[in-house]
């Protein structure tokens, strides 16, 4: 969607509202133009922010893109589609995207606001992330877990079983990136406990990257840039 010049310029001074709606899973969903980027937010969290979604933009810098195969990507928690936009426009990758999103209203927003800007093929699955990985039989070079219910990660996505299902779906050279909160001391404590007790039990060579207010857990430090 193309916005008038005055709105794009105004968005550098203040957030320009584009659309506010609700759904079965989110009683408040707001699309705003912020510094000429589309942002999707709930009352308590930012779900997407185009290429300015720094959680993944910053963490993807640890990948050696010259040697990393990125043909198939699984995005658990698609939101408005920041992750494929980042892969396409920042890192010049052209993978096939498998998009898993529980909220049909968010899918509708993504189809209207982001899909027209993507050159990448997107295969949609309107379902729960934990259910999807337990049943899927595909393989993926990159799996991105960005699943939140407002500012909470669903318990079903914090289990050993969920991580083992994700591990099964990874190609031999593949990587998993898992977004966790680290904004408050409580967030950091919960994330550290999950990382040490659960994540590393499935991915013993794991690492993480600190980004603004979040930690991105990464499945295998041996496959990252030196």
Mean pLDDT metric: 94
Oligomer: single chain
**How are the strands of the biggest sheet laid out side by side?**
7-6-5-8-9-11-10
Derived from helix and strand composition plus strand pairing, the structural class reads alpha/beta
Estimated radius of gyration: 17 Å
* Overall number of domains: 1
What is the highest CATH level, the class? Alpha Beta
CATH architecture: 3-Layer(aba) Sandwich
Strand content: 25-35%
Element order: H for helix, E for strand: HEEEEHEHEHEHEHEHEE
* Cα-to-Cα separation, first versus last residue: 40 Å
Tally of strands: 11
Shape: globular
Low-pLDDT segments, ≥5 res: none
Instruction: Tally the helices.
Output: 7
Q: For the record, what is the CATH homologous superfamily label?
A: Vaccinia Virus protein VP39
CATH names the topology as Rossmann fold
